[in-house]
C-alpha cells in the first residue's frame, strides 16, 4: 500500500503516459485496487487523450474544491471516479484532472485535505498514483509530493532532457528533505530516447533508477492519444513489460523506506507501548461499497505526532518518525523542521503490518450484482470512427489527394453578403494568399 507521485518537467518527458502505464501494469493482489489521480495544475489529459473524449468532462478534480468547502470531500471523491479496468471490475480507477488551468487557484486550500484523504484510502487497500505533471510538485500542490512514499521523476535520456532535469531534481530533493519525507524518496523513471544509459544517468544524479521505459512512440500513443488497451500486442509490448518491472522497483523502494523509517526499538526511558490517537481526532471516509456506515480513519492534530497501539503480539506498529535532511530526532516523536506540520496519517510497515489488527474499521467492499463503488462512472463503448454524414460526404466528393485527411470545404460567400463590408473581391484575396 503506497502513495506514488509521478513528476514531469520541461520538454514533456511523458509523466502522464508513464502514470497511465503504471496504472495498467501495477500488480494487484485479490481485493486490492489502484487509483490514478490527475493532480497536474496545468490540467488533465486522460479524458481527451486515452479516453478519446468518450467520457464527458463532468467528473474530476474540479468538483472536489466545492465539496471540500462544504465538508463533503470524503464522500464526493467516490462519485468522481472512472473505471479504467479492462475487465470492468473497478480495480483500476481514475480521478480526472482539471479541464482548465484557471481552475487550479480554487484548489489552493484543497490539496492538503486531499493528501490526507489519499493516505486514508491507502490504508483501506488502495495504492494511489498521483500524476503531478510539470508543475504539480511546486506551489500549493507540492504537499502531494511531500507526503508521497516515492516521488518518481520522468526524464528523457537526451542531453536536453537531462540538462532540464538537473536543477529541477536538486530543488525537489531540497524541498523533500526540508518539508517532506526525505530526499531518499526521489527516484528516476528514464525514457530511453537518447544515448545515455540508465546506470550513467543514475550515477550522475545520485538517485536510484526505478525503471527504463523504451522510446516506443507507437505504443505510447495508445496511452496519450487513445487506442485499444486490451489488445494483446499492447499488453505484451516492451513498454508495458518495462512498466511492470518499474512498478516492482517502486514497491521495493517503498518497503525499504518504511522499514528504515519504522522504529525498531523504543528509546531509553520511553514507554514501550505507543500512545493511542485521541478519539476526537478522526476524519470520516465514506465507504466505497455504497450506503452504509462510514469508516473512521484516525487523524492526529497538527501538533501531535501520530502513533498506533496494537494489542496483538509481534513487532511494534509503525509510528511517525522524525523527518529531516540529517535525520535529527530519530526515535523520538516530532519533526526535525519546526515549521512543518506533521502529516495526519501513519503508515504501517509495507508488507509486514497487514496482519496486525488495524485501528480503523475498514469498509466492506461488495462485489457481484452490487456496484463496487457508488457513483462510479463506467467507460462507454468507443464511438464509430467517423459520423455517418461525414462518411457520406467523403464518398460523394470522391477520392481526395491525401486519403488520410478530410477534404477542406471553402465557405459559400455571396457578393450580397460582403459588398457592404469589404471593398474588394474575396476571390482576389484568396489568390493573393
What can you see in these coordinates?
- The protein is an alpha/beta fold.
- Helices cover 29% and strands 12% of the residues.
- It has 13 helices and ten strands.
- It has helices at 15-25, 62-69, 73-76, 111-122, 143-146, 159-179, 198-205, 217-225, 232-235, 238-261, 388-397, 415-418, 426-432; strands at 3-7, 33-38, 82-83, 92-95, 126-133, 150-156, 186-192, 209-214, 282-285, 295-298.
- The N and C termini lie far apart (61 Å).
Layout of helices and strands:
Elements: E1 3-7, H1 15-25, E2 33-38, H2 62-69, H3 73-76, E3 82-83, E4 92-95, H4 111-122, E5 126-133, H5 143-146, E6 150-156, H6 159-179, E7 186-192, H7 198-205, E8 209-214, H8 217-225, H9 232-235, H10 238-261, E9 282-285, E10 295-298, H11 388-397, H12 415-418, H13 426-432
Parallel strand pairs: 1-5, 1-6, 2-4, 2-5, 6-7, 7-8
Antiparallel strand pairs: 3-4, 9-10
Anisotropy-based shape: globular
Which structural class do you get from the secondary structure elements? Answer: alpha/beta
Q: SSE order, as H and E?
A: EHEHHEEHEHEHEHEHHHEEHHH
Give the termini separation.
61 Å
Instruction: Give the mean pLDDT.
Output: 73
Side by side, the strands of the main sheet go 3-4-2-5-1-6-7-8
Instruction: Let me know the number of strands.
Output: 10
What percent of residues are in strands?
5-15%
**Cα-based radius of gyration, to the nearest Å:** 25 Å
Give me the number of helical elements.
13
Amino acid at each position: 500500500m503506497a502513495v506514488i507521485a509521478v513528476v514531469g518537467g520541461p520538454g514533456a518527458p511523458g509523466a502522464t503516459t508513464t502514470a497511465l502505464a503504471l496504472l495498467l501494469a501495477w500488480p494487484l493482489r485479490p481485493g486490492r485496487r489502484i487509483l490514478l489521480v490527475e493532480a497536474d495544475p496545468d490540467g488533465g489529459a486522460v479524458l481527451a487523450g486515452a479516453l478519446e473524449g468518450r467520457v464527458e468532462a463532468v467528473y474530476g478534480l474540479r468538483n472536489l474544491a466545492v465539496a471540500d468547502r462544504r465538508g463533503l470531500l470524503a464522500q464526493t471523491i467516490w462519485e468522481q471516479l472512472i473505471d479504467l479496468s479492462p475487465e470492468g471490475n473497478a480495480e483500476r480507477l481514475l480521478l480526472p484532472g482539471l479541464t482548465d488551468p484557471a481552475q487550479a487557484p480554487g484548489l489552493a486550500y484543497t490539496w492538503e485535505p486531499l493528501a490526507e484523504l489519499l493516505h486514508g484510502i491507502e490504508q483501506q487497500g488502495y495504492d494511489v498514483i498521483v500524476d503531478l505533471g510539470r508543475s504539480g510538485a511546486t506551489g500549493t500542490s507540492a504537499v502531494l509530493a511531500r507526503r508521497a512514499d516515492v516521488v518518481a521523476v520522468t526524464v528523457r535520456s537526451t542531453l536536453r532532457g537531462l540538462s532540464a532535469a538537473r536543477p529541477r531534481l536538486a530543488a525537489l530533493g531540497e524541498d523533500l528533505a526540508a518539508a517532506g519525507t526525505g530526499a531518499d524518496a526521489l527516484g528516476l523513471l528514464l525514457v530511453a530516447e537518447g544515448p545515455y544509459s540508465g546506470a550513467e544517468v543514475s550515477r550522475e544524479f545520485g538517485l536510484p533508477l526505478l525503471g527504463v521505459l523504451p522510446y516506443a512512440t507507437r505504443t505510447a500513443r495508445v496511452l496519450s492519444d487513445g487506442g485499444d488497451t486490451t489488445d494483446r500486442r499492447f499488453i505484451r509490448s516492451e513498454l508495458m513489460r518495462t512498466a511492470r518491472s518499474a512498478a516492482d522497483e517502486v514497491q521495493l523502494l517503498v518497503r525499504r523506506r518504511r522499514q528504515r523509517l519504522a522504529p525498531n526499538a523504543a528509546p531509553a526511558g520511553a514507554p514501550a507501548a505507543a500512545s493511542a490517537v485521541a478519539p476526537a481526532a478522526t476524519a470520516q471516509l465514506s465507504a466505497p461499497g455504497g450506503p452504509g456506515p462510514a469508516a473512521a480513519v484516525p487523524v492526529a492534530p497538527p501538533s501531535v505526532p501520530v502513533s498506533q497501539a496494537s494489542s496483538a503480539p509481534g513487532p511494534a506498529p509503525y509510528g511517525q518518525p522524525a523527518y529531516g535532511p540529517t535525520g535529527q530526532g530519530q526515535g523520538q516523536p516530532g519533526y526535525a523542521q519546526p515549521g512543518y506540520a506533521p502529516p495526519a496519517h501513519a503508515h504501517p510497515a509495507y508488507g509486514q503490518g497487514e496482519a496486525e489488527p488495524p485501528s480503523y474499521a475498514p469498509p466492506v467492499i461488495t462485489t457481484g450484482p452490487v456496484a463496487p463503488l457508488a457513483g462510479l462512472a463506467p467507460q462507454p463503448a468507443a464511438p464509430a470512427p467517423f459520423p455517418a454524414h461525414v462518411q457520406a460526404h467523403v464518398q460523394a466528393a470522391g477520392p481526395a489527394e491525401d486519403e488520410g485527411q478530410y477534404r477542406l470545404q471553402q465557405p459559400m460567400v455571396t457578393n450580397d453578403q460582403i459588398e457592404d463590408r469589404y471593398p474588394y473581391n474575396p476571390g482576389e484575396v484568396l489568390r493573393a494568399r
